[in-house]
Amino acid sequence: MQDTLNRLDHRDPLVFDTHELGRRPGSMRKVSRTLEAPADLGIEDVIGVPAKSEISLELRLESVIEGVLVTGTAEARVEGECVRCLEPVEDEIDVEFQELYYYPEAIERARNNGDDLDEGLDEDETYRLEGDLFDLQPVLRDAVVLALPLQPVCQEDCLGLCSECGARLSDDPDHHHDAADPRWAALQGLSAAPGDEGDGIKNSGTREGLAENQEK
Q1: Which of 56, 78, 143, 171 could form a disulfide with 95 if both were Cys (CB 3.0 to 4.6 A apart)?
Q2: Cα(first)–Cα(last) distance of the chain, in Å?
């Protein structure tokens, strides 16, 4: 919910003025605006709209009894990282959203009457106008986040990375490593260690010497 204790700045590109609607139910106004994306517009460390990249907005503002109904679309470029192979991911998104910004007196009236503002919502989950202004940023942020993939991939059939050497498998589908047969592992421990061969010769020589001494 917007914090009504903080006045909105009309110079903020994501703050819109509804003064022209005149609080006349049924009046409507369309707004087109291209602006720089705010920071952290997306899923942190996964994918999102790059800060200060371009966002195109198309809005329809409609005056209703309770406030101003805002319906719109946003187009933006998103960047992220493939969760399988860590390659960069780029895409374009086109999101839709709709939100009712309540007049403060409508909220107060509903509170006094003990009425719900909307089915499934309570006062702490609603947005409200500050004077004639409303802040679109939280609504835009929610719409963008819901439209983004939680696990972005560079391509649907991305094979990921080799677990042994980190090579990108999509670049070389035949990539593999020769795995040692585990049945030979025990025998490898019995192979001659450095110096063993010399000891064998020494022992052999000793046996031959004993045989010679016995003959003598």
Answers
A1: 143
A2: 108
Rounded CA Rg of the chain: 35
Read off the DSSP letter of residue 111. Answer: H
Go through 127-139 and write b for each residue having 16 or more CB atoms within 10 A of its CB, e for each that does not: bbbbebbbbbeeb
Tokens coding 204: 């052999």
Where would I find the beta strands (DSSP E) of 37-87?
Answer: 41-43, 47-49, 54-63, 67-81
Give the CA diameter of the chain.
130
Return the bridge partners of 56, or none.
34, 75
Written as one letter, the residue type at 27 is S
> Token digits for 180?
């040692």
Sorted by sequence, the CB contacts under 8 Å of residue 44 that are 6+ apart come out as none
SS (H, E, C) 72-119: EEEEEEEEEECCCCCCEEEEEEEEEEEEEEECHHHHHHHHHHCCCCEC
Q: For residue 134, give the H/E element and its range.
A: strand 133-135
Q: What is the pTM of this model?
A: 0.71
Q: Report helix, strand or coil for 171.
A: helix
pLDDT of 157 over the 50 cut: yes
Cα angle 24, 28, 34; round to 5? 135
Alpha carbon distances (Å) from 135 to 10, 64, 108, 210: 9, 18, 20, 101
Q: Tokens 């009457």 correspond to what residue?
A: 113
Position 87 pLDDT exceeds 60: yes
